[in-house]
Amino acid sequence: TKMGVRIPGYLDRANTVAFKDIPTGFGALEKIPTAGYIQFFLFIFILEIAVMGEELNGAGPAEFTGDFRNGTPDFGWAKLSD
Q1: Whole-angstrom distance, CA of residue 53 vs CA of residue 60
Q2: pLDDT per residue over 36-81, tens digit each?
């Protein structure tokens, strides 16, 4: 971070990229290994399919845009008007 706080250790398994070597801001995007990007997007894909997916988790179709309840009990929040 800009405050100088860094996680000790390395970013990759080969111990070639240390966390302290990653700059702040957009410069950090060049330093992240390709495997890191693959892991990041794979994680998002799994969340979208397994956690937020309507058919796979049994939640059924959403009642409204932004309905992320995923089959959890409705405590009345959906009934409130703006």
Answers
A1: 9
A2: 899 999 999 888 777 666 555 555 666 666 666 666 666 666 565 6
Burial 52-81, CB ≥16 within 10 A → b, else e: eeeeeeebeeeeeeeeeeeeeeeeeeeeee
Query: What is the spatial distance between Cα 4 and Cα 23, in angstroms, rounded to a whole number?
Result: 10
Quick one: which of 27, 28, 79 has its CA closest to 19?
28
Q: How far apart are CA 79 and CA 61, in angstroms?
A: 17
Residue 10 β-bridge partners: 18
